[in-house]
Structure formats: structure tokens, C-alpha cells
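Sample 3 of the quickstart, ligand zinc ion:
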Amino acid sequence: MRKSFLLDLLFPVKCLACGQEGAWLCESCFRKLKFGAPETKHRLIVPELTAIFIAGDYDDPLLSELIKKFKYNFLTGPGKVLGRFLILFWQGQLSANRNLAVAEKFLLLAVPLSKKRRRWRGFNQAEILAQELAESFSYPLGQELKRIGHQKPQAELSEQARLANVRDAFVWTGASLAGQTILLIDDVVTTGATLNEAAKALKAAGAAAVYGLVLAKG
Ligand SMILES: [Zn+2]
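Result:
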């Protein structure tokens, strides 16, 4: 965290869209971010998930720019903007879906990185998003979902290879999840293979339902 804090100090922050100084995305540009993804982007094969919620569209250039900055530039500032975007989207889902809001007491989990990648990157972007959400909604945030071994980055693989790459890559190391409803957070979903495998591990530990919530569909 210290490294990113220093970088934020050294390079004055400017709005990615209009260049105004002071924020990664100024208020008026933030309001231009579109919520939701087109229907065609919901066709994922995620049988282990009860439902998946996709907050935005990766084809929105502003959103994808923020996500790239967040992921590859070791800066956590864009994470705050994206966290806020995710929070507003989730608020909308809860108001639109009464069952979700009333019936569910969510345990929040972030899709973990492997130890090696976590060390290399210095942070897990999904974890930062999950922390923002946990604070905003007072959901408990679990840490016991682990990644076993070290898989190749999914982005480097074909769709078919992605499934095999993450197979059995996750394990739940905490107490039984019997009866729990999980809200599983990740930044970008592509095929859904990673989320699906993580959900499989959570269900094996007893989870009653696993919902996926992601920033965007790549
Ligand atoms: Zn702006």
C-alpha cells in the first residue's frame, strides 16, 4: 500500500476523461459511467452460481481505462472510484430485487489471487472492491477462500484452456459455510470459469447460494 500511496503523491491525479485535476474521475464524468452490461454479455456458463451481477460494460472506454489503471499501475486510487461504481450498482440491484434485499444476509468474499501473483502485484483488486462494499453495506468480509498453486493468467489462454487452468484452483479453509449466502466479488469476468470454480469450492464447504458480483464483462 505504501508504494501506491507514494505514487499518488508524486503524480498529481487528473480526471481520466476530461483532465481536470483532483480526482481519477471528476464528479460530472463519474455520472457518465453507464450501469449494466448488454444482455449478450450475460451468456456465461456458471452453473455453480445462483446469479451473476455485472455492474458495467468493458466496452465502455472510460470504465475499461479505469480498470486497466487499477490493475496494472499499482495505483489504488482508481479502486475507490470503481468501488463507488460497484456500490451504486449493488444498491440499485437491492432496490430492484426485493427478495435479494430482504432474504439475504451476505458473506462477502473476493476471488483470491495466487500467493505469487498477490506478492508481485502488491494487492488484489477484487479484495479492495470487496472491502469498499463490506464497509458500505456492513457485510462481513471473509478471508478464507484460497487459491491453490499458481495458474497461468486467464487472459493469456483460449476460452477452452481457461476452464482447465482454474479447475480445482480454490479451497475454502474456514469453518463450515452451511446455510450461508455468499456474495463473491471479482473485477472482470470473461468466461466465468474462475468464478464458477470458486463457487464450486464454496458449495463444497456447505454454502447455500453463491452470487457473483463483478465490475464488468470483458
Ligand atoms: Zn472529468
